[in-house]
Amino acid sequence: MDRSVGVLVGSLRKESFSRRLAGALRDLAPANLRLTVIEIGVLPHYNQDADDEGRPFEEWLTFRQAIRAADAILFVTPEYNRSVPGVLKNAIDVGSRPYGKSAWDGKPAAVVSNTPGAMGGFGANHALRQPCVYLNMPTMQQPEAYIGGAASLFSPDGGIAAATTRDFLRNYVVRYAEWIETILGAKQA
User: Fold this and answer.
1) pLDDT, tens digit, for every residue of 126-157?
2) Residue 84's CB: how many other CB atoms inside 10 A?
3) Which of 63, 103, 118, 127 has a 20 to 30 A CA-CA distance from 48?
4) How many structural domains compose the chain?
């Protein structure tokens, strides 16, 4: 079954490793997955007053609708100070409100973290899993994706340079497709 996957990139930089990695994952995905980046850089900081007073920002409404329209969510993020970038946390907050109307509810999720260093964004990956649990987003446990050495990850054409990394990422996104079917198939049964 064809599935739409909303991809949230945790870095705003046009040529960020995370954005490039999201593009590589899109290219490696099986034919039944359509990965589309949902932009988060335009979202005003979340302030509950705007929702409570019936004047949510148009950018919030558009974002929430894009999340609701996706069958699943893939987070591709760098690590900032052993956690997720603030812009990504803001997007999570915007999508979770107003209270009781979370756009995230039940969306199968997966996390790919990356850093130029060796640890591959371990802190960000695990920090991101906490709100996923709270927001009822079944998050794929295995395989985990901590991508280190992001500065040398890409070939000149934008693909993944190392065959072993490319194979790992292809397997990861295939397993994610299976995870999506496991979760959504159980909901439909």
Assistant:
1) 999 999 999 999 999 999 999 999 999 999 88
2) 28
3) 127
4) 1
Domain carrying residue 158: 3-188
Would you state the pLDDT for residue 185? 87
How far apart are the C-alpha atoms of 14 and 149, rounded to whole Å?
19
What gap in Å lies between CA 138 and CA 159, rounded to an integer? 29
Asked if residue 102 lies in contact with residue 130, where contact means CB atoms within 8 angstroms, the answer is no
Q: Which of 115, 120, 19 is nearest to 75 (CA)?
A: 19
Count of C-beta atoms within a 10 Å radius of residue 73 = 25
Q: What is the pLDDT at residue 34?
A: 98
3-class DSSP string for the chain: CCEEEEEEECCCCCCCHHHHHHHHHHHHCCCCEEEEECCCCCCCCCCHHHHHCCCCCHHHHHHHHHHHHCCEEEEEEECECCECCHHHHHHHHHHCCCCCCCCCCCCCEEEEEECCCCCCCHHHHHHHHHHHHHCCCCECCCCCEEECCHHHCECCCCCECCHHHHHHHHHHHHHHHHHHHHHHHHHHC
pLDDT along the chain (189 residues), means of 10: 97 95 97 98 97 97 98 97 96 97 98 91 96 98 95 90 95 98 83
